[in-house]
Specification:
By secondary structure, this protein is an alpha/beta fold. The protein has helices spanning 2-21, 48-51, 56-59, 62-67, 70-83, 90-101, 115-119, 145-154, 181-190, 240-250, and strands spanning 25-29, 104-109, 124-126, 129-136, 142-144, 167-171, 193-197, 216-220, 234-236. A six-stranded parallel sheet has the order 3-2-1-7-8-9, sandwiched between helices. The longest helix has 20 residues, at 2-21.
Length: 256
Amino acid sequence: MFGLKKVQVDKAKECAKFLEEAHFGVVLTGAGISTSAGIPDFRGPQGIYTTGEYDADKIFDFYYFLQDPRPFYNFARDFLSKTKNMKPTFTHNFIAALEKEGKIKGVITQNIDALHQLAGSKNIIELHGGIYKSHCVECGKEYSLSEMREKVIEEEVPLCDECKGIIKPDIVFFGEEVLHFRDAEELTYQSDLFFVIGSALAVYPAAMLPNFARGKLVVVSKGEVNIDPISVDLMIDQDIDNFFRDVSKHYGGEKK
């Protein structure tokens, strides 16, 4: 046990050194960064792809949604109840502090939970959109998250107040193109330190982004990650918040 802990602490120290030497850090985050905030990882032990509680192929398929949005909104009620009182994790806050300091130049996220915004990050690219806005697929009327929370509770399928069209959240479904991928690609290419945090790199095109990183590559994610270990400078398979707490203790940035 002592030897294992030593290896983990050494990795945290090495990661802190990478941060201190970096001039243009970029972060790619997946669902794993938000699990300690109470949001299940879709592909983790309690995720919907694992438990079978919901049919993910029906929930997130754009064309199925247009035919029958009920499976999505059954899931949405559960998801919104879990996210109602959510707060950013230690890692969300640490990333935001590093951005404020100038070490991190941007966050690319696959998540729709807006925890990076709540933590204070500013330069955020949401590849899969977010939950804070929704629009009617017929007339385009916009609805806020607070309005949608009420509608999801009151209506089996939330319909537009103006035209009775189906309301769709501004998240990317299967069958739709991801958002701002060229911007994410360019940001990654500029980086001299690129983090993959809480992502199994199982969903494309986001999984391609580490290929554009020209500097050091650090992967922090529990479980198997779809990446060639040879291309990774530092691979950490442990609790994300615990690891970055260790990193913060070693990091000698401006805050110290």
